[in-house]
């Protein structure tokens, strides 16, 4: 399902964080969002998920996301993760995923205990490689495992749009590789958008790259095209201190 | 096996309350224990809202008071007989029963009011508060202010609520004479029984998906929002259940204590309810009830030994528990249990903070890596 962003603007007390961004996020490809610090990458995701107020339009399945509350956006199938993994540390990995899976359950079933591992949760545990840790409190997971759990929470919700905010930050090279492979595995049937700083990672896995700078889109294309882009070079070299 | 652990505790409590206490305690002491049971019922609700839901409910006296006054009004009307006027109204008022008292003449309707009115009040209040994302200290202050306002309102209505004196001198309880020691014992069993049932209900609730979701809301309210659930609804449900339990406790308190006054529902009383929960361990199953019973007992014995100084003990207790034992007595038990056996894994269900460390070896990648590094 395509998510179309039209002339999105986000302002904080007069400071323009997003300045007329238009984007088409299509399913079936790994879409990376890059840009220097303060370019507005996270703010863009915040605006699409109801965390920051924006004007313009973000059309998805006939609805404008900008007018919806966060939990309704999630129920529509647009999920996100956070830069610092925020899982429920005292609950087990399984409970974390089970709570995420709750969007597809009838309300009244909240009044019953969980029995065993629901099938879709078991599948996702396998996909993100956390099956052996299912019963452990999420608090003891390593940083990388927490990010995988977060991605798993989106998978179990069957989100058709996944907005991932720096999922590989702080990961070891090996974990990055695994995460990249994971993203590749899940991207064919959904829209996966990844905010990332690590250019090597972007080059390895990106199908499409959008470059943001000072709240505006300055380039879009394949990783190779972006590398050759004069303005992108200027922005990045100018930023390099 | 570890799942049975809390039930063993419950069974011990049940034996203590239903068999041991009636066998060894005098009627007077048993009456006091009945009173503590009423506080404990409210405490069980606070455990849900505060311990599991993270809402610092500083004003449960409001709901305790709704139940207590509804019951007291019914008892006064029942004592006065059909069409009769309660004694204190003849004394201070214009010797006519106000219209809003009349429905409570019916015992059945009084029970309905005790169960439904707090749910309505808590529902409306919770909706207004949680939907606006008011939380933390603001919520605590707001809830306490409401309890204070309720007490002040009662004091001002001398003619219809007995004012600062409250309502007292009840003769009967649904047809049973309250001066009869046998009936007093029956009231004790009623209070203890309802307490035990409410703990069982919590045990069920904590095991349900709602219980898990509530903990998730406590630990990451914003995160829950992005999982497609409005945390306000989850908190609202817990808050309403806590309010109804407080109201039931208040309603039972009236025939047992023989009086209800604004002092029983105000700020001090509300904090008193909280003290037991903090002592026992707010997030544990049995902690709130056991803590409330202990605090009630301590209040009586210390007041007998050092008249007038209970509030200092209570304050010191609060400070000590919060500083040294944030998980309450349940945390102590948890520590003992963990030292005894390697069963830390599920203990986290019962400790409000801190995942048990230890015995993770092979799974904790980051930890074993850093240990390796340290070894070199």
Summarize the structure in words.
Chain A: Residues 3-239 form the ABC transporter domain. The complex is a heterodimer of chains A (241) and B (376). Chain A is an alpha/beta fold and 241 residues long. Chain A has a 6-stranded mixed β-sheet, sandwiched between helices. The longest helix of chain A has 14 residues, at 143-156. Chain A has 9 helices and 10 strands. Helix content of chain A is 35%, strand content 24%. In chain A, strand 7 (161-165), helix 6 and strand 8 (191-195) form a beta-alpha-beta unit. Chain B has one domain (5-375). Chain B is built from 16 helices and 4 strands. In chain B, the strands form 2 sheets. Chain B has a two-stranded antiparallel sheet with strand order 1-4. In chain B, strands 2-3 form a two-stranded antiparallel ribbon. The model of chain B is unreliable at 341-376 (pLDDT under 50). The chains are: A alpha/beta (241), B mainly alpha (376). At the A-B interface, helix 2, helix 3 and helix 5 of A face helix 9, helix 10 and helix 16 of B.
Name the shape of chain A in a single word. globular
- Poorly predicted residue ranges of chain B: 341-376
**Fourth CATH level, the homologous superfamily of the domain at 3-86 and 159-239 in chain A:** P-loop containing nucleotide triphosphate hydrolases
Rounded to the nearest angstrom, the radius of gyration of chain B is 22 Å
Strand content of chain A: 15-25%
Shape of chain B: globular
- The mean pLDDT of chain B is 86
Number of strands of chain B: 4
Task: Give the class-level CATH name of the domain at 3-86 and 159-239 in chain A.
Answer: Alpha Beta
Number of separate strands of chain A: 10
Structural class of chain A: alpha/beta
Instruction: Give the name of the CATH architecture of the domain at 3-86 and 159-239 in chain A.
Output: 3-Layer(aba) Sandwich
Largest sheet of chain A: 6 strands, mixed
Quick one: biggest sheet of chain B?
A: 2 strands, antiparallel
| Count of all domains of chain B | 1
The helix content of chain A, as a percent range, equals 25-40%
The H/E string of chain A reads EEEHEEHEHHHEHEHEEHH
Strand content of chain B: under 5%
Oligomer: heterodimer
């Amino acid at each position: 399902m395509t998510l179309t962003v039209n002339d999105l603007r986000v302002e904080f007390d007069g400071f323009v964080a997003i300045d007329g961004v238009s984007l088409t996020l299509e399913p079936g490809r790994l879409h990376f969002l890059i840009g220097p610090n303060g370019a507005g990458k996270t703010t863009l995701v915040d605006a699409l998920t109801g965390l920051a107020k924006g004007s313009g339009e973000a059309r998805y399945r006939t609805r404008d996301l900008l007018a919806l509350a966060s939990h309704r956006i999630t129920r529509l199938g647009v999920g996100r993760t956070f830069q610092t993994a925020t899982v429920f540390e005292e609950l087990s990995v399984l409970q974390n995923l089970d709570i995420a899976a709750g969007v597809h359950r009838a309300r009244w079933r909240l009044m019953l205990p969980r029995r065993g591992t629901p099938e879709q949760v078991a599948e996702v545990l396998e996909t993100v490689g956390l099956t052996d840790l299912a019963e452990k409190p999420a608090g003891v997971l390593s940083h990388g495992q927490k990010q995988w759990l977060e991605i798993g929470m989106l998978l179990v919700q069957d989100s058709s749009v996944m907005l991932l905010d720096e999922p590989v930050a702080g990961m070891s090279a090996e974990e990055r590789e695994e995460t990249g492979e994971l993203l590749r595995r899940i991207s064919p049937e959904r829209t996966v958008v990844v905010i990332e700083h690590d250019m090597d990672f972007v080059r390895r896995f990106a199908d499409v790259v959008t470059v943001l700078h000072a709240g505006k889109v300055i380039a879009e294309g394949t990783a190779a095209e972006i590398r050759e882009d004069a303005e992108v070079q200027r922005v990045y070299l100018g930023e390099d201190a | 096996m570890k799942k049975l652990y809390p039930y063993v505790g419950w069974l011990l409590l049940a034996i203590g309350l239903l068999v041991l206490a009636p066998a060894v305690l005098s009627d007077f002491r048993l009456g006091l224990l009945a009173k503590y049971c009423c506080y404990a019922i409210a405490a069980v609700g606070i455990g849900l809202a505060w311990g599991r839901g993270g809402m610092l409910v500083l004003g449960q006296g409001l709901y305790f008071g709704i139940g207590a006054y509804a019951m007291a009004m019914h008892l006064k009307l029942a004592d006065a007989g059909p069409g009769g006027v309660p004694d204190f109204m003849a004394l201070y008022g214009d010797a006519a029963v106000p219209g809003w008292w009349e429905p409570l003449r019916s015992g059945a309707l009084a029970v309905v009011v005790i169960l439904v009115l707090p749910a309505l009040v808590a529902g409306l209040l919770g909706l207004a508060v949680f939907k606006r994302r008011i939380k933390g200290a603001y919520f605590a202050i707001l809830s306490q202010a409401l309890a204070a306002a309720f007490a002040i309102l009662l004091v001002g209505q001398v003619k219809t609520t007995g004012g600062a004196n409250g309502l007292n001198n009840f003769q009967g309880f649904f047809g049973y004479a309250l001066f009869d020691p046998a009936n007093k014992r029956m009231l004790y069993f009623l209070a203890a029984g309802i307490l035990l049932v409410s703990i069982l209900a919590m045990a069920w609730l904590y095991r349900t998906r709602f219980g898990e979701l509530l903990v998730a809301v406590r630990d990451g309210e914003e995160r829950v929002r992005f999982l497609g659930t409005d945390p306000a609804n989850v908190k609202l449900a817990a808050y309403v259940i806590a309010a109804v339990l407080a109201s039931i406790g208040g309603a039972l308190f009236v025939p047992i204590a023989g009086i209800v006054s604004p002092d029983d529902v105000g700020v001090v009383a509300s904090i008193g309810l909280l003290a037991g929960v903090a002592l026992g361990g707010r997030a544990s199953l049995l902690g709130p009830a056991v803590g409330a019973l202990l605090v009630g007992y301590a209040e009586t014995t210390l007041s007998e030994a050092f008249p007038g100084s209970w509030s200092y003990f209570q304050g010191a207790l609060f400070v000590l528990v919060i500083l040294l034992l944030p998980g309450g007595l349940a945390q102590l038990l948890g520590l003992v249990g963990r030292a005894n056996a390697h069963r830390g894994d599920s203990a986290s269900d019962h400790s409000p903070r801190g995942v048990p460390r230890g015995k993770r070896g092979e799974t904790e990648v980051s930890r074993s890596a850093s240990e390796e590094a340290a070894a070199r």
